[in-house]
Amino acid sequence: MVVAHQPSNEQEKLRDIELPIIDLMAERSQVSKLIVKASENLGFFKVINHGVPQHVIKAMEDESYGFFSKPASQKQRAGPANPYGYGCKNIGFNGDYGEVEYLLLHTNPLSNSTISNDPTLFRCAVNGYVEAVRELACEILELMAEGLGVPDTSVLSNFLRDSHSDSLLRLNHYPPLQLLQLVNNRIGFGEHTDPQILTILRSNDVPGLQISPQDGFWIPVSPHPSTAFCVNVGDALQALTNGRFLSVRHRAMVNSCRRRMSMAYFGAPAPNARIACPHKLLSPHEPNLYRPFTWDEYKKATYSRKLGDTRLHFFRVQSDHDDLTE
């Protein structure tokens, strides 16, 4: 496993650890156990034999490459990302910066006709892809619930199936950088955790993703096998499992020779959905770590801070941090 560009901070160390690769066509109870174990230990894993048709993936990839290959003036017609649309280098509203351009789309039917020369074709590609990866996310969440012993195995997937789900699709493009630029420009997308429930990530065969399950250590994530999706736990799922599953910090690094493209589906609840750990996972010995909160409440706390800021500890029971807007 190789990373093209290592961070200059000597305190950071790279560890060569492969993420678990889970075959979703294997025996169901075993798959469930493997997913739970990976979610507890690393917060990241890969899935193969996932059921998302290759032609659906290719259609979305082709449309993504087509969009990012346009002149800057045409891409900017789809922006700014406020909150949905095209963004370049500036990430969010709090001064975060990276060597990335991206297109952020809500998973409800698209209305922006400036994204593609053929809006109908683009819309069909997005809707087909979102439907397929949402089903994959729901299947994984139900396997998680089974592995956790929750009687209602749809308790997690129902968040994503809600017609008012706030799920997103983000297309990221990391252009290649000249070697001389890499001294100052090696971070494509800075370290952060995903605030949603579950992320389903598809990328091309260019490495760049790194995760940090332990402070000071980074694990490069190989883009192989090429048929796999990378799955990671979000903040909301960590709260829903009372801290049993880990929402782990990660980042994207640039490549000097080849462009990297990724497509991330962020499965999120409806704005008024209540995030609270199921009683089945609580006991006198394991009291609730987090107070109940709505997705809208957590989303506002997220967007009021910088990309790399921690957020979930503000929602811990008996937290000393009660001001969510400072």
From TrEMBL:
- Record carries keyword Oxidoreductase: yes
- Report keywords, A-Z: Dioxygenase, Iron, Metal-binding, Oxidoreductase, Vitamin C
- Which Pfam family, an example, fits this chain? 2OG-FeII_Oxy
Which EC class is this protein assigned? oxidoreductase
One Gene Ontology term from the biological process aspect of the record: response to molecule of fungal origin
Q: Which organism is it from?
A: Solanum commersonii (Commerson's wild potato)
User: PROSITE patterns attached here?
Assistant: FE2OG_OXY
PANTHER family from the UniProt entry: 2-OXOGLUTARATE (2OG) AND FE(II)-DEPENDENT OXYGENASE SUPERFAMILY PROTEIN-RELATED (PTHR47990)
Q: Which domain of life is it from?
A: Eukaryota
| Gene Ontology MF term list | gibberellin 2-beta-dioxygenase activity; L-ascorbic acid binding; metal ion binding
Q: What is the name attached to this protein's record?
A: gibberellin 2beta-dioxygenase
E.C. no: 1.14.11.13
- Keyword Iron recorded: yes
Catalyses: gibberellin A1 + 2-oxoglutarate + O2 = gibberellin A8 + succinate + CO2
UniProt-listed Gene3D superfamilies: B-lactam Antibiotic, Isopenicillin N Synthase, Chain (2.60.120.330)
Annotated Fe2OG dioxygenase domain ranges read: 164-269
InterPro entries noted in UniProt: DIOX_N (IPR026992), IPNS-like_FE2OG_OXY (IPR044861), IPNS-like_sf (IPR027443), Iron_ascorbate_oxido_reductase (IPR050231), Oxoglu/Fe-dep_dioxygenase_dom (IPR005123)
Similarity comment: Belongs to the iron/ascorbate-dependent oxidoreductase family. GA2OX subfamily.
